[in-house]
Amino acid sequence: MSVYDEAKGLFERKKDAIRRDIEGFDRIFQFVFTDKPGESYYVEFSKGDVRVVRGFHDNPHVRFSMKMDTYRRITSGELDGEQAYMLGLISIDGSIYDAARFGYILQKLLRR
Fold first, then answer.
1. Phi, psi of 11 (to 5 degrees)
2. Coil, strand or helix: which one is 52?
3. Is this structure's pTM higher than 0.85?
4. Which single residue of 4, 27, 33, 111 has CA 20 to 30 Å from 60?
5. What contacts 44, CB < 8 A, 6 or more positions away?
């Protein structure tokens, strides 16, 4: 299963758990995999809903760039996203505040 399919499934299955967290938080988060660009996708929060789309957005609010292994380690719980950023394993273009808020939302989904 591709990381796009995994992300789409995660957000679609559990979007009710984050609905309050994303109300009024209309942002687009791009995931770019430096070693597998064909797996890239973005997450769009808009009007209290979430959408996961394969490919690249023209103007995301935040762009996360990393290797696939880093992404897998974060989503498995082996590595914290903040730690990965501090270690230079993730490059973030855009608002660090929005990136941190997205990290909180993602961790909330992964815990449930």
1. -70, -35
2. strand
3. yes
4. 111
5. 27, 28, 29, 50, 51, 52, 53, 57
What domains appear along the chain, each with residue ranges and CATH number?
3-111 (3.30.1050.10)
- What does each C-alpha distance from 87 to 13, 62, 75, 100, 104 come to in angstroms? 31, 19, 17, 16, 19
Place of tokens 């690249």: 56
Structure tokens at 85: 């950023």
Q: Residues 36-94: pLDDT tens digits?
A: 999 999 999 999 999 999 999 999 999 999 999 999 999 888 998 899 999 999 999 99
CA angle 29, 35, 36 (to 5 degrees): 65
